[in-house]
């Protein structure tokens, strides 16, 4: 189990460049299976989850060449489908959430797709019904081995149809889109997820020859084609990382510039921090966070009632930033309710913040009321364990703002999604060591 030792209480300064987006990379990498031709992908983050998926593709027989930092070519012209039945796949396929998106491309191109119950954060129930209901609607037969937690879909051919998704699942929509692009005829997907990473996937598929309209909306129309060709694709910057750096700057009273953020793809993210009173300045495509020497004041609603920050499917606020917004709120002036609607077990990490002296009432598994300290009292250093990727980064931000030296165990959770986080934090003045 890896550990960070963090000496808190230091102001940071300088520039930080966000990595390529983790959750986009997981979709895009799976899409290379849709064509026997070469696909070049740039700005791939060097993080544990993405590297595990690249290894899975290699084990499936995809030819992979590293061209430079973050740039690879992939050629899926000789895919080894037997690997999908191997014990190794049943083991390795579980290692991350994103592996579920191997199923759609495999099903549409080869007529079968299998996956062990995928991993990812333990943040509550993470069902897969939307994915498999979509495949079944396209004509696939579904099999589930309960002993092995092994899912499978098979089809001689997929036929386009209308479907109304039961929820706007991000990976579910990506999976169904990747199945439908090679199905016969027209597929309509209503209540589709439409976040920027899905838009990126759809745009990539269109460059490969797919016919998709409605990109960016929750109503996608797909006209199936016989085959897809190669392309080149570059990942957007990771919006959750960008939000993490905004929170870090405010909480440590630091002046930071976050470079090349692709502002127009950030949706509600800058607004959510502004609601906590944080100044988020746009400078071309950079974000500048000035030093918040006088702290930051939560904005109540017009009628004076207490602010609630809640997640919602895109273009609502992503659930992956709520843990970070919560930790930032512990030093705000004012009160805020954080309402994590999507996941059931993602707020339990507030226990660690309570140990550090934060004022938080966990109302129920979905809602926490935070009463900000307004920097009248700093958080106290402590020893903690990272329960999931975003809680881990939130605890890291808390530790960097705290008085004294904190220890965070189980940092593998953080490494799942943040590239060389300790090195990049040291470059802006943080005192953090990997021990
Ligand atoms: C690898 C990857 O890309 N992971 C992301 C992806 O996970 P993932 O695609 O697994 O998440 P889903 O979008 O399927 O659903 C997330 C959770 O929200 C609930 N839900 C979803 C849609 C909806 O309309 N109502 C609703 O309540 C689901 O039941 C589930 O509990 O999207 C999540 C939601 O943005 C993010 O937290 C994850 O980081
Ligand atoms: C929940 C997340 O990831 P995953 O879906 O891979 O568990 C996340 O990125 O915050």
Question: Which terms would index this structure?
Answer:
single chain, 435 residues, alpha+beta, UDP-n-acetylglucosamine1-carboxyvinyl-transferase, Chain, 2 domains, four-stranded mixed beta sheet, 23 strands, 24% strand, binds uridine-diphosphate-N-acetylglucosamine, binds phosphoenolpyruvate, UDP_GlcNAc_COvinyl_MurA, UDP-N-acetylglucosamine 1-carboxyvinyltransferase activity, EC 2.5.1.7, UDP-N-acetylglucosamine 1-carboxyvinyltransferase
Describe this structure in words.
- The protein has 2 domains: 3-18 and 237-434, Alpha-beta prism (UDP-n-acetylglucosamine1-carboxyvinyl-transferase, Chain), CATH 3.65.10.10; 22-234, UDP-n-acetylglucosamine1-carboxyvinyl-transferase, Chain.
- The protein has helices at residues 22-31, 48-59, 87-92, 103-110, 129-137, 170-180, 196-207, 239-251, 269-275, 322-329, 350-355, 389-401, 412-415, 421-427; strands at residues 3-7, 13-16, 38-42, 63-68, 71-75, 112-116, 141-145, 150-154, 162-164, 186-190, 211-213, 219-223, 231-234, 255-258, 281-283, 286-289, 307-310, 335-339, 359-364, 367-371, 383-385, 405-409, 431-434.
- Strands 21-22-1-23 form a 4-stranded mixed sheet. A 4-stranded mixed sheet has the order 2-14-16-15.
- The chain contains 14 helices and 23 strands.
- Helix 10 links the parallel strand 17 (307-310) and strand 18 (335-339).
- The protein is globular.
- Helix 8 runs parallel beside helix 10.
- The protein is an alpha+beta fold and 435 residues long.
- 29% of the residues lie in helices and 24% in strands.
- The site of uridine-diphosphate-N-acetylglucosamine (UD1) has 17 residues, from helix 1 and helix 6.
